[in-house]
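Input chain follows. Return structure tokens only.
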Amino acid sequence: MPYSSVQLAEILGAFSYALDMTEGQPQGHCVRCCWIGMHIGRQLGIAEQAQWELYYTLLLKDLGCSSNAARICELYLTDDQSFKRDFKLVGGNLAQVLGFVFSHTGQHESWTRRLNAILNIMRNGDTIANELIQTRCDRGARIARQLRFPEPVALGIHSLDEHWDGSGRPEQLAGTAIPLYARIALLAQVVDVFHFSYGPAAALAEVETRAGSWFDPNVVAAFREVAADPAFWHMLAEPMIAEAVLQLEPAQFSLPLDDDYMDAIASAFGQVVDAKSPFTAGHSERVGFYAEMIAIELGLDAQQRQWIRRAALLHDVGKLGVSSAILEKPGRLTADEFLAVQQHARLTEEILSKIVHFRDLARVAGAHHERLDGRGYPRGLAADEIALETRIITTADIFDAISAERPYHPANTPEHTLHLMQQMVGDALDPLCFAALQQVVERELAGQGAATAT
């Protein structure tokens, strides 16, 4: 099915808000970076095709950001979101970096544990930094390719953390060896962070301080010209900036939207979510698979099944707004921590609702923690208020959550998982959906047994 009324920039712009949350940035960070960077690109006189590639490099610069969240929590004994947010205000000055490490490592841990973490970071700082950035860069570029963007976009995302003087990462590229899109994106990122926190003068001063070290002098010169226009700064502070950024996309180069591409987008962002924790690798894909199998068992048509699978792939996108320090916690959550986890369902609906075409899908996906007995979240819906599509996704989600290893429980066999779920039927789980899941799992187990026998 064609999506002639849907703009690719609208879809990926909405998902960029999820990336903002993962980076601990104020809502609209990537969109604002796109506004900044596109003005720089135009000032530099780059061609229309290059402007289109730059547009999506800027909007999706943080595609790989979720992949190092759990590792940051583990190494620095801290909340990954506040860590990432504050680190973007740190320059290349060694004293600033050391001060940041001391002030952000293990603030709420015992002195012994905090000291051990700081010593580990001091001894292995370069190795740790390389690991965190390499992971982020590699995954971001890989997902950009999966989203069918040309190689210059993938390379621009991969090289976001490179510096003009060769002091960046992951490959210590220098000068014009750094892709132009990455040079523009890095400057745009710093401008937005300092502008949002301290205003235009501070953003300009920071750019000048890093010119020739972090930033390409030619890109800095282009930014000076852009920054001389008061209208540029005015729009950067406007709530309606997302609409203005939509107008900046050179539409003639956009990728055609159809069901196959929409599925690729859903799968890609499901992977972004699952990368946030080593315990959820493949979770969204598995929930999508079981949701589709349940839908087949229930006799739903192909279009309904595809729609449900898409919603299942995106059901946890709101988890990008929850700190990995909470998601990775092995013990019992406090009341405040559980409340933070519950927010992910609301955030899923909020993010997906930014896409007009996804409004119905947003409600279905965001309701996957509702229960038939009305004791679910985020709205406490009762049975007759929960759509069949949501009931299917809930059943698939619970099956994978129980059967897979998590910080708070070991992996369970399919048989034991079904046994535990049986006790939820009628309260949390729809009986028909559970019966359909049983048929799917039993057929899988029988197939595995037959394969083993031969």
